[in-house]
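Before a colleague's protein record goes any further, I have to sign it off. Thanks in advance; the entry in question is below:
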Amino acid sequence: MNPYQHIQEAAYAANMQLPELGLVLFTFGNVSAADRSQGVFAIKPSGVPYKDLSPDKMVIVDFDGKTVAGSLRPSSDTLTHAVLYKHWEDIGGIVHTHSVYATAWAQSQRDIVNYGTTHADHTTVDIPCAPPMSDEMIRGDYEYQTGFQIINCLQERGLSYKEVEMILVGNHAPFTWGKTPDKAVYNSAVLEMVAKMALLTEQINPNAPRLKDALVNKHYERKHGPNSYYGQ
């Protein structure tokens, strides 16, 4: 019996959603799925086209980034995933894409301003853009340091990874996470849509105001917290 089959299947299914949602081109992007009880995660193999993927090709890696099972080389972003899993014990899935609009904001080194209720439905704050990596970190273990680039940005801004499940890495691209791989993919799709809406908002009105606090809180609390009433 394969002890990793469930996370291989979860990682495969989540990865296959990325092209369906228009979030990746060619082999850009990856999703991982963690099993906390075993201390491992399954992740897309590096450079393999989506049409050639299958559950058994998902590579099993521990939270130190070492391959545990699988004949293929794991994603080049594996160490970033490993760092986040090791330091954030409540996440079960991570997504990295180079989706067009979110990546454009990352390349612009700008937070995505909370302009409207679609944004506020998912987070009360501007979506943070981590500063570009220092030369010293780049010369080190780049993918490993990217994990700390993400962690440090949230810590410096006083944000919780449990409440803000998405980030832009300056000059690079977005990462999202969640309790499950499916939630992480959902967050990636939401981030891309919010990024597109924010760009269009600024094109239509360069002086568009930030959403007022009363609406931010109303829309967030409709879907989150003890008094939420959105959905079944």
